Amino acid sequence: MSYVVLARKYRPMFFDDVVGQQHVTKTLQNAIEQNRIANAYLFSGPRGVGKTTVARLLAKALNCEHGPTTKPCNKCSSCIEINESRSLDVFEIDGASNRGIDEIRNLRESLRYSPNPGKHRIYIIDEVHMLTNEAFNALLKTLEEPPTNVLFIFATTEAHKVPTTILSRCQRFDFKRMSNKSIADQLRELAVKEKIEIDEESLRLIANKADGSMRDGESILDQVIAFAGTKIDSAQVADLLGIIDQELFFQVSNLIKKGDVHGGVDLANMIFTEGYNFNEFLIGLAEHFRNILVAKATHSARELDVSEEHGKRYFSQADDFQVEDLLRLIKIAADAENLIRRSSNGRLHLEVALVKMIKLTKSVQLSQLLNNIEDIKKKSEQQALVNHPPIVNNASHTPYIGMATSSASSGIADSNGARADSLSPFSKRLETLKKQPPVHEAETEQEPVTIEFSEIESRWKEIVEYVKKKKIALGSFLSEGWPTQLEGKTLVVTFGAQNGFHINSIERSQKVIEKLIAEILNVKLILRCVKDEQGVLDKVRKIPARVDKKTQFSQLLEENSIVKKIVETFDAELID
Q: For residue 17, how far is the Cα from the chain centroid?
C-alpha cells in the first residue's frame, strides 16, 4: 500500500475530532438534530483549518444510512464512499479550474437527478471566489430556490471576493486560525500514534512555522520525520526549516544596550555569510521586540509563545527598554523588511537598520522635558532671590531696612523730619516702592464680580472655542479642563490627574487666557488650574474633552520656541 501523508491519514472522521472550530461544528450538529439544514453554506477562513473536512463531515452526516445524524457510522456504503471520495451523491468541484459559466450550466443540468443511493445531493465547491461573475450569476436563482434535497457547500480563503448576492443566499461560517498551542497539542498526539520521539521545543517551532494552519503543521512534521527519523530534536528542526537561532535576536538587544555599532556591522556580515534570509531575520527581530514589549506591558508569560528559558530572558531585558523605544525598534525592523523586498541590495538595508537601532536615542516624554525646563527655571529664580532679596513694602520690615542703611544719621531723614538732599541707591529704590500701592490693595479696589458660576459653566464651551480661535493650542489645552468653583474673583478650573503638561502650558500664558475670558464675559477673573485628585471631573463635566493631538503639537511648535528647539535638537517626533 502506498504511503499516506499525515494530513490525510489522520483527517477527522467525526465532528468532535475537529480541532479549534467548535463554534462551527457545534452549530452544524445542532442544526442536524433540529432538522434545520440550510440549502447553501459558505465556509471561509485561512488555508488548512478544516473547511473542506467539515464540508465532508456534513455531507457524511446527512447521507449516512442511519442519519441524518451528528455521528455518522463510517461503516455504511454511503459513509465509506464519501471517505474514499467516490460517492455519486457528493461532488467536490475545484472552483479554480471549473470557473466558467459552461461548467455551472452543466452543474445546473445535473440538479434534475435525484440522489441515489444517498438522501441528499451535495455539491462542495472549493475556492469558490475563483468563479467568474457570469458563473456566479448563473448560480443565483438555483441558490435561492434549489431542488429538493440539494445542498451547496462553498469553501473559500477570500470571502470578500464572493459577490454579496451569493453571500446573502448562504449561511456563512468563519473558520479561525489555529492557535500554536492547538497545533502543538495535535502534533504531539500524532507523534505518539506514529511512535516518534520529539521534544517540546521542536513542536513549538513547527507550530510557529505552520502559521495557524493545521494542515501545514502536519505537512512540516511529515517532512521533519523524513529528515530526522524517529528521534527529533529542536536543532534538527531549526536546521531543516531554516529557522534563525533565537540567540541572534538576544545578541541584537545586547548590542543596543551597549551601543556597539561595530558589533552590529559584524552581526550583519555574519548573517550574510551564513546565508540567512534577511527578511526572515527582520521578521523574527520584530517578533523579538514584540515579546519584550509584551513582557514589559503585561508582566505575564501567558502571551509569550516561547520556551520557559527564553521567557525569563525577555523579562530580564524588559527593564532595559521604554515602551516608546520598543515601538520604534519594531517600526525600524518592519520598514527595513519592506525595503529589502523591493531592493537588490538587501545587505545594505540590513546594516543600516541595525546601526539605526543601536544608535537610537531613548525616548523622553515632551511634557517631562518641559517640566524639567520649568524646574531649572524655578531653581534659577530662587537662586537669584537668594543673591538679590526683594524689598517688601511692609512696616514690619522697617527696622531691618534701617539697619541696611548703616545708621539713622546717614539714612532717609534728618532730626527735624526733613528729607536728606542726598539718597543712596538703596534708599532711592525704597522710596520708589513706597509710592507704589500694594498688590492686595490694588485688587480690593476693583469692582466686585458680577457673574454667577452657573453662567460661566454654561458658557464654558463658548469660552474654549473663543480661546481656540485666538490661540488654538491654548484653547485645546483649556478644553481638557472644566470650571469647578468661583472663589471671589478666582475661577478654579480642574484638569485630569494626567494633564500636568496642559496645566503648565496654561499657566505660562495665564494672562493671555484671562484677557480672552474677560473679552467674552466682560468680567476680569483670575484663573487657577488644579489637578483632579478626588476623581470628580468626570461627574461634573458636561462636555467631553476632545483634543486633536497633531494640531495641538503643530501649533505648539509654532508658538513655543523652547519646544521647537527641543524637536530640532533631538529630532523628536509625536508618538500617539
A: 35
Q: How far apart are CA 139 and CA 133, in angstroms?
A: 10
Q: Residue 269 above 80 pLDDT?
A: yes
Domain boundary among 189, 220, 241: 241
Q: What is the pLDDT of residue 440?
A: 43
C-alpha–C-alpha distance, residues 57 and 63, integer Å = 10
Cell of residue 283, nine digits = 521578521
User: What phi and psi, each to the nearest 5 degrees, are found at residue 575?
Assistant: -110, 120
Contact 546, 479 (CB under 8 A): yes
Q: How far is CA 192 from the centre of its chain?
A: 39
| CA atoms lying within 13 Å on the CB side of residue 221 | 32
**20 and 123 belong to one structural domain:** yes
Angle between helices 101-110 and 133-144 (to 10 degrees): 20
Q: Name the pTM for this structure.
A: 0.59
pLDDT at 370: 66
Picking from 199, 221, 241, the residue at the C-terminal end of a domain is: 241
Per-residue b or e along 57-96, where b marks 16 or more CB atoms closer than 10 Å to that residue's CB? bbbbbbbbeebbebebeeebebbebbeeeebebbebbebe
CATH number of the domain that residue 91 is part of: 3.40.50.300
